[in-house]
């Protein structure tokens, strides 16, 4: 099993180009199955294990896929309904995205309960409730979800919670469903807007993404297109934190600055200087990081839950106590015991963590508990004295492509050791 070895204490300096968004690409890959006329080509698609798993699902459903550099072409003209392989669906949360487009295009679907990172319950009840509102008949048996959408028609759907996944799934299901569908209390994340733009590029009639109400007028068919994947706001935030915790200076190219307003505010509170410089977004760390009085994760445009673990690591270097409250998932402090192995002083009570800084981080053998927790361990290792070895790199690879190489290019001493 591979691991990442980091020898800490080296400030990061240099320029980093932000790659395409994983969370943006996955629903778009699922939506490509809606296209019955011509292929779609995604530009700047990230080469990640989650993307490859989604492509394996698409190929199982009869799609053809082809990489040319970072351009990915999917031809779904000969796609068909087929039971998703359990071994693939179980390892990634985004497999549930197939339910909506399969129902929308073919009128039936068979799925399994999705896997992914163990960061909380993340129930799919909102997905199924919304699809039933559109007329789908859904039965659940032995871990499988059987869906019949022969009678699908547009309808009014109010989401009890602004779930990103449910919003995306229902947008895809409604794109080819006769009539008008209106989603209220919809998620407003940038990835929702990007999915709307992709569906429009294929010919869908959809509006309102980025607001609480999304309206979809079903069309008969969708056609091929070429579409750019937007920059990954969480990867951008990760590298900002990496530069901040090491006392470095970084310039991000292609960063979605406006999408990171909540993250920027907390970095400024810690004493970092951030400024736009043409196409670059620069961060300069202070001599000593300050404590952050309070961070609370919220749906967009609030502070993103995917950045919470990274700020746990950052706050270990702050001058004083920082308080972080997790409001989205109930199991997202799983990285704390691993950070404690490195010397972090963090006390967790229910959904709140109090980080006492400035602590002295020292290298240790640690294991990534999940994707973002793994990234937090990488960031902590950059600031630690001595050598840190991080296991379960496969979890980190779900959202970062060769993170150790990118960090090394910025001055870190980081290598991957194949086991």
From TrEMBL:
Location of the active site: 117
SUPFAM superfamilies: EPT/RTPC-like
Protein name: UDP-N-acetylglucosamine 1-carboxyvinyltransferase
Cellular component per GO, a single term: cytoplasm
Recorded metabolic or biological pathway in which this protein acts: Cell wall biogenesis; peptidoglycan biosynthesis
Family named by the database record: Belongs to the EPSP synthase family. MurA subfamily.
Record key words, sorted: Cell cycle, Cell division, Cell shape, Cell wall biogenesis/degradation, Cytoplasm, Peptidoglycan synthesis, Pyruvate, Transferase
The organism's taxonomic lineage, starting at the top: Bacteria, Bacillati, Bacillota, Clostridia, Christensenellales
Annotated source species: Luoshenia tenuis
One BP annotation, GO: cell division
Domain Enolpyruvate transferase: from-to ranges: 7-407
Binding positions for phosphoenolpyruvate per the UniProt entry: 22-23
Enzyme Commission code(s) on record: 2.5.1.7
InterPro entries for the chain: Enolpyruvate_Tfrase_dom (IPR001986), Enolpyruvate_Tfrase_sf (IPR036968), MurA_subfamily (IPR050068), RNA3'P_cycl/enolpyr_Trfase_a/b (IPR013792), UDP_GlcNAc_COvinyl_MurA (IPR005750)
Protein's UniProt keywords contain Transferase: yes
Modified residues (2-(S-cysteinyl)pyruvic acid O-phosphothioketal): 117
Binding site for UDP-N-acetyl-alpha-D-glucosamine: 93, 122-126, 306, 328
Residue intervals passing through the bilayer: none
Domain of life: Bacteria
Gene name tied to this protein: murA
Localization, UniProt: Cytoplasm
């Amino acid at each position: 099993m591979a691991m990442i070895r980091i020898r800490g204490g080296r400030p990061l300096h240099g320029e980093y180009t932000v790659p395409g968004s994983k969370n943006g690409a996955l629903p778009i890959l699922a939506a490509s199955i809606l296209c019955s006329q011509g292929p779609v080509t995604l530009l700047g698609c990230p080469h990640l294990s989650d993307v490859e798993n989604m492509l394996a699902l698409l190929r199982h459903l009869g799609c053809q896929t082809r990489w040319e550099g970072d351009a990915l072409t999917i031809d779904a003209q000969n796609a068909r309904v087929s039971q998703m392989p359990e071994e693939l669906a179980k390892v990634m949360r985004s497999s549930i995205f197939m339910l909506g487009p399969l129902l929308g295009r073919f009128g039936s679907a068979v799925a399994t309960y999705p896997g992914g990172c163990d960061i909380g319950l993340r129930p799919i009840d909102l997905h199924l409730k919304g699809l039933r509102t559109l007329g789908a008949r859904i039965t659940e048996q032995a871990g499988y979800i059987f869906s019949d959408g022969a009678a699908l028609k547009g309808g009014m759907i109010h989401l009890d919670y602004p779930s990103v996944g449910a919003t995306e799934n229902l947008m895809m299901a409604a794109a080819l469903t006769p009539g008008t569908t209106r989603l209220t209390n919809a998620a407003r994340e940038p990835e929702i807007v990007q999915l709307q733009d992709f569906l429009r590029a294929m010919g869908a009639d959809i509006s309102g993404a980025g607001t609480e109400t999304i309206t979809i007028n079903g069309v008969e068919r969708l056609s091929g297109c070429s579409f750019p994947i937007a920059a990954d706001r969480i990867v951008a935030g990760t590298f900002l934190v990496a530069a901040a915790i090491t006392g470095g200076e970084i310039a991000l190219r292609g960063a979605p600055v406006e999408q990171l307003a909540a993250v920027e505010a907390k970095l400024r509170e810690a004493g970092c200087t951030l400024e736009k410089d043409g196409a670059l977004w620069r961060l300069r760390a202070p001599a000593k990081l300050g404590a952050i009085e309070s961070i609370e994760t919220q749906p967009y445009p609030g502070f993103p839950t995917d950045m919470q673990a990274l700020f746990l690591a950052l706050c270990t270097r702050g001058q004083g106590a920082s308080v972080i409250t997790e409001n989205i998932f109930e199991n997202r402090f799983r990285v704390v015991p691993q950070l404690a192995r490195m010397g972090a002083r963090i006390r967790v009570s229910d959904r709140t963590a109090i980080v006492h800084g400035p602590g002295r981080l020292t290298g240790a053998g640690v294991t990534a508990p999940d994707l973002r927790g793994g990234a937090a361990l990488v960031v902590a290792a950059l600031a630690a004295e001595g050598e840190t070895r991080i296991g379960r790199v496969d979890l980190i690879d779900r959202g970062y492509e060769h993170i150790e190489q990118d960090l090394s290019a910025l001055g870190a001493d980081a290598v991957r050791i194949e086991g």
